[in-house]
Every structure is written in C-alpha cells, then in structure tokens.
Amino acid sequence: MCGIAGFNSANELKIKQMTDKISHRGPDADGFFVDLMVSLGHRRLAILDLSEKGKQPMHYKHYSIVFNGEIYNYEEIREQLLAKGHLFVSNSDTEVLLHAYEEWGANLVEKMNGMWAFCIYDAQKKQLFLSRDRFGVKPLYYFWDNEQFIFASEIKAIRCHDLKLNLNVSAINYFFYQKYIGNGQTIFEKIYKLPPAHHLILELDSKKLTTFQYFDIKKEVEKARQIPLEKRLEMLPKLLEDAVLKRLISDVPVGSFLSGGVDSSLISALIAKHKPNFDTFSIGFKEKTFDELAHSKIVADHIHTQHHTEILDLNEDLIPFLVRNMDEPFGDSSIIPTYLLSKITRKKATVALSGDAADEIFGGYDVYKAAIFANHIPDFAINLGKNFANLLPASDKNLSLSFKIKKFLNDYHPNPQRRHLNWLSQSNENQRQHLLGKYWKSETDLISVSEEKDLTSIQLLDLQTYMLDDILTKVDSASMLCALEVRNPFLDYRVVPLALSLPDDLKIKGTETKFWLKKLAEKYVPKQVLYRKKQGFAVPMAKWIKESALIKIYLNEEKYYVHGYLSASYVQNLYQEHLENKQDHSRILWLVFVFNYWIEQTNYAI
Known about the structure:
The chain is an alpha+beta fold.
C-alpha cells in the first residue's frame, strides 16, 4: 500500500511537493518520473519485495506505473505470463501489473483479486490508464477542467497545484445528510472520485477523458443466484477461507484486528487455523458502554493468538489532528477509535486484516431488520407512533432504545430505499433546510434511489454509499496515517456476490442478524461472543458535545460562520436544546463542528 500522484505536464518540483503531502502513506521510499508529457510520483510502504527492485515508478518497455494496493493472486498471474514468455526481474505485484497490461490491456483486471488504484502511462500511445478496484477499497481522486488533469491518493496532494477551487454545494448538502460525501463528488468542484470498478483513460494529445465500468455487482449477484443454493452454501466457507489466506501474503509482519465482534473474530479464527500464535489487536475504553475488550480476550484465548490490548481514554485530544488530516469534511466519529487501533497495531505489524463489509453483505445491521419490519407496517400506524416517540427522553448512551425508536418513526419514508438512507442520516430534511438556508438541496437531488424493497437491494445501496464513502474512507484514512495496510477478506470479489445472493432468511432470521455467518462462525468462535448484543465502534458524542470547550467554540462563535453556508442562530438553538437534554442533537451538531473546524484549519479561502 502506498500513495500515488501525477499530472499531464512536466514539473519535477510539483510532483515532489505532491508526494511529500502524502508521505504518511509511504514512509519507506519515494520515487518520481517526469518526461515532456507527464509527471508521476510515488510514496512506498514496502510490503512485497522489499528490495530496490520493487521501487516505483516502475518501468517496462514504454510503460510506467504508479500503484497503490495489493494484488493477492499476483503469483498465479505471474505464472500465466511466464508461460507466455514474459520475464521478470523482481518478485513484486507491481511488475506483474505492468506485464499483464501489455498482455491483456484493460482486461487485466478481470484476472485480479485485490485492492488497487493505479496509473499506467503508455508513452507510445501517449495515454494514461487509471483503474480503481471493484469495491473502492483504495481511493483515487482526480481534478479535471478539460485541460489540466491531476490525480492522487488524497485531495491534499492535488491542492499543491495553483487551482481555483470552489466549494461544492451539493457535496455540503450530502455531508449534512449522510456525514460523508458520496456520489463520486468531493467537497470541491472539479475534483472527483473515480468510482469503484471503473477505468479512466486520458488521451494526452487530444485531452479526451473517458471513464467506463468494468464490473457490475448487481449482475454478479444475479449470476450467483443461478447456482443452486446448496452449492452456494458449500462454496462460501471455502472461498471465505481462501480469501483470508490470499490476504496473508506479505514480506512484512501481518496481524488482525480483533474487536470481539462476529466479523473480526471469524477472520482471526480462520487465520489461526493456518498460522498459530499470530498477533491480534484490540483497544478498550474507560467508558463501559463503548468497551468490547473482554469479548476480544475470550476469542483470543480460544484461538490462541498473541493478543495485544491497550485501554485508552476516549478523549477529544485527537479530534483536531484527525479533522485537519481529512481531505474533506468527514463526520463519522468512529474514525477516532479506528485511528487508535491502527496506531497500536502498527507497533507490531505493517499489515492487518479486518472484518469490514460482513455486515453489509451478510445482513448484520439492525437497520436491515427495521427495513424488513417496515414493509409490513401501514403508514397510519407510523404517524400515530411519531407522537409517542417524541415524548421519549434523550439519552447519552450508545445507540439507546429511545434513539432507535425515534429514528425509525421520525425518518420513515414510503420509498424503502429513501427510508433506509433517512435512517442512516444525521439530520432530517427540515433541519437541513433551517441549517443551510439558500444553499439547501433536497435529499432527492443528492442520491437517486429505486423502488426496490427487497433486502438485497438495500444491501447493494449500502455497498455503493455507506460502505464505499464512509467505512472504507474511514479505515483507509485512519490506517494510512499510521502507515498501516488494512485488508478486507469479506470484500473478496468471489465472496460478495454469493453472500448477497443468499435468501433473506439466511441473512436475518427472526431477530437474529447475520444468521448464516454466525452458524459458520460457531465452528471457530465461542457462542457467547457470537450471540451478544452488537455494540459498534462508537464514541460518546452526546456527552462530549455537552462538555467540550473546543466543540463549544466552533458551534457558538460567530467568526466560524463567516463562510456563510450555515445558520449560526439555528445551530446555537440546537446546541442549547442539547445542553438542556430536551433533544439529542449530537449528530447534526458534530457535523457542524467538523465542517466549521475543517474550513478554518485547512485554510480554505472563502
């Protein structure tokens, strides 16, 4: 895993500045290539072939590459290429990518099992070819104004250039709706995210830019459904175990996150089956409703790992550091514990496997139960229930029952997919209208949805929104600040379609989420861990907002509203209601703090 950057002109000083901005992604080495048409830069976190032969940019014939990620089956592809007469000078997956591109062109990705964002420069064709992995594990941003093309692993590298950047009003609305920025947008106009499963081609002479999709997960799910269910259930455990084994390839130490939840426990147990006494990592918190350390210890003892833990105080000291280091406003506060976990993991390992994506593909969220339940409730019952819900008191506890009831009833929508997005939202339409005033855009302008109401369609929506732009962004940002590579076995492209294709009652049975996955995990993990209440990786946000001097300043002082996008008086009213326990406004207040602080700290010229 590394950091990449480049642009369609020659400027050695500028490409060095870009890579310096993302040096945390690759502390082991840097490299540059500049000719008359392009500049390419790379920061290296050495994982495979630690020698100089693995250094980037890497060149082969008239091709040059900068690559961020890992190709887990690169040795298999290498064997195919050797049989076709290709010769290699290193044992790196980067060199395999270059040769594979010469052999198969854009179709090389059909053979790849991995996570990636890369750019290949073909000096003969005068063309740049960029690609992002199937589910968007690795980030890839680009600026394009029909003349100047700039790409990088992080926006801060793109901003090294002298660009006139305007804030993106749609992105601001999206942020206050879902706490992250999605739909391929960024906080800046003319800076975009290359979508997952897409290629981008830039013709350097004509300056023609095209993007196209190479993988459609919905079609893959339909293909998987053609396989008899019994066969799918036979294939899934084998493919999941193989996905774990493939992600253990490394020339540096590999460990595993172990929260004590179902997903990370199963991944750790599958590793332990093949690699005794490997390292697992957990963090505990002094706030007991947010702590899972006891559960992780039960699993670690059961599967016999070298378990490393630290008990940390979930304080706000890290907030300024993390907000400053985000490329755009990002409101998922669980980035704080994710960063802390990455930090302790990096003391012993350079690579860690995680359990991310199991909830999305196997049906692990309570909101999925709510989606199924809501399909059977008449609208008039919802309206009656809203009056009752608003009488419930506010609570500082993590995902309290009163919070869930209020969220279910107040954010109900007749369209099942819109309803799901509203349940995940950080504010309702009325709040955003008051907050954003003339800049407000309706939620229907931000994310388009279909009328499909089956569980799989809701899961697919999550893969394209919440998983992509929240979970994966959070993990990549937090881990790379620690120069830690995180791998996701559940996002193996062979596993995802099969898991999503399962019937609903194998995902959620009664009140039990991830039903089939938990049955599989029973072979490896104690039942007391598998069937406990889900906690999530949260922070005590409602309490922080009441007590924090830093947050108070950025919510209350008028000078932090000079950007003009938010109503200071409306925020101050919400803040007062929150302090008086009239309503829990912690979600929207946190987003306002992040937005105001990000603008002020990143020196964005309003």
